[in-house]
Amino acid sequence: MRANGSLPAARVRVPAPLLARITARPRGPSAMSVVSVLDPAPTRPPAATQQPGEGVPEPPALTARLQVSLLTRWSLGLVLAAQCALSLRLVWSNTAFQDEALYLRAGHLEWEHWLHGAAVPPFAAYFSGAPVLYPPLGALADSAGGLTAARLLSLVFMLATTCLLWTTSSRLYGLRAALLSAALFATLAGTQVLGALATYDAMALFLLALSAWLAVRAADCPRGPQAALLILAGGTLALADAVKYSAALFTPVVVLLAGAAMWRRDRTWAAAATAGTILGSWLALVIAGVRAGGAVYWHGITTSTIDRAPSNAGVALVVERSYVWTSLVLVLAALGVVLAIRSKERARLLPALLLTAAVLVPVEQARLHTTVSLQKHVVFGAWFAAIAAGYALARLSRVDTGRGWAPVMAIPIVASTLFGSLAQAGGLFRVWPNASAAIAVLRSAVRTHPGHYLAEDYDVEAYYLRGQVAWQRWSDTYYYRFPGQPPGPASYAAAVGHHYFALVILDFGDTARADKAIVADIGRAGGYYVLTRAGQFTIWARQSSAARGAGSRP
Question: Is 506 helix (H, G, I), strand (E, B) or coil?
Fold first, then answer.
């Protein structure tokens, strides 16, 4: 070790022809620009405060940096390929999830409203994200290639999110930590699921990650471009919150991350200004957006996010499921917190901030006693925690100064994938029933039985049959009001008694109690018969007027 505390230069074997070409070139601005693109410099404390083995030591030679950089980028390509394969196996494994059907159908209706002035339901009053952002974009993909194309759009967002994690982590802790962070995040069960679901979660997470990267990137820029990047980061953060309202939970994390990145650059005076710039631009756009949306949007924001009604799930269940889906990242991030606190780095508490981001969702959903969409929401916090987890693995890998660290560090990631997240993601994609057989029957049934239709989760049926049945003709088993009756069981009984529904489609899922009551109503009223049983679905059809009048049965 040298007197100034730096590590001795590593010996790197470089082919003679390549070494001759590199050393023969002048190290002018153009050469340095190439290096800066291939190997973005990590944001780290000044040399005087950096200890041996901490942070990311600067590779001493240009050729060494090129070799490390190119090797790491090839490894990133392998991580992205693995992530792509893990999500693609889910894309064709099941029919549309209720949320997918709802958002894509909403997007098609928004386009019809914009282009032709067609009526649309008040989506903004109950959606947990702005219905004019992701749904129309997803509907465009759906028009181009069906549900598969819409799901592939989410996969593109998630692959880009992993790339942003890599480049953000590389600026904070170096290329080795970046690669390990990306591998940890890409193999999570929630990451696999979000890359195969046509919902606004993937787009919101991408925008949140983009905002965090812009905030970290700004710390390495001169004052003029720095201000522009910070304002852009605040605007991107506001857009992420508009796509999915609950993403606002991570706004303080991005703001503090921006300040910490500036603090690491020994710019104490600028840390507060950095955080204030992002927060100010975010707040200005949020206020403008809420005012533009009006009362109906504010009602949707409050009922779906701010003042959401609590459920009955136990706190222990919420905590347990959150841990199961992100356990490896959480444990390694906690280790990263310990290693950072024991070090002499300038921003020793940054890993603690990143770990805190991972517990925000479990704490919030435990407060609401709900596990709804928990498997998707924990991925948002895991993106931040993966940076601290990658830092911990990178610190541990410094024990091996050669190339043997890579397979050793890959062991827990591969094991967690093969024996954990692989089965978890597959199980999450089988939670809802496959509706392919029922949809095949309904395509012809709606032609022979025109009228109004009752279905438990009619969004799925309405999505697949949107070209045949107008949205106004669908009713669900969550809430219904028949004229002259109070909403609930009395309305269902009255509608069935008047043979209002031409078809009744039940799968005895989330509203099993209401479904059983409707079946009893059908038995008392008569005039219906079981058309078919397709998988988990049972479909009743209304008899013709003549058959009902004669009291006959098929």
Answer: strand
Q: What tokens does 193 get?
A: 């699921």
Token pair of 89 as six digits: 């196996």
For 100-139, the pLDDT digits (tens) are 999 999 999 999 999 999 999 999 999 999 999 999 999 9
Helix (H) or strand (E) holding 272: helix 268-301
Q: Note whether 230 and 415 are within 8 A (CB).
A: no
**What pLDDT, in 10s, does the model give residues 435-475?**
999 999 999 999 999 999 999 889 999 999 999 999 999 99
- Given a contact cutoff of 8 angstroms between Cβ atoms, the answer to whether 78 and 181 are in contact is no
**How much is the pLDDT for 548?**
59
- What is the layout of strands, in order, in the sheet containing 537-542? 474-476, 452-455, 501-506, 537-542, 528-534
Q: Are 394 and 177 in contact (CB under 8 A)?
A: yes
Quote the percentage of the chain above a pLDDT of 90.
70
Contact 80, 162 (CB under 8 A): yes
The three-state secondary structure class of 542 is: strand
Give the predicted TM-score (pTM) of the model.
0.85
Mean pLDDT, the chain, as a whole number?
A: 85
- Which residues does 479 contact at the CB level (< 8 Å), separation at least 6? 487, 488
Q: Is residue 23 classed as helix, strand or coil in its secondary structure?
A: helix
Nearest to 470 by CA among 114, 98, 119: 119
Residues 124, 294: Cα–Cα separation, whole Å: 10
Q: Distance between CA 266 and CA 8 in Å, rounded?
A: 25
Alpha carbons within 13 angstroms on the beta-carbon side of residue 246 total 23
Residues listed for the chain: 554
CA pair distance 396, 399, nearest whole angstrom:
6
Site of tokens 């109004």: 452
pLDDT at 320 over 90: yes
If DSSP codes are grouped into helix, strand and coil, which group holds residue 256? helix
- Quickly tell me which residue has 């024996």 as its tokens: 419
Among residues 34, 38, 40, 26, which one has the least CA distance to residue 67?
38
Q: DSSP letter at 419?
A: I
Q: Which residues pair with 538 in a beta bridge?
A: 506, 533
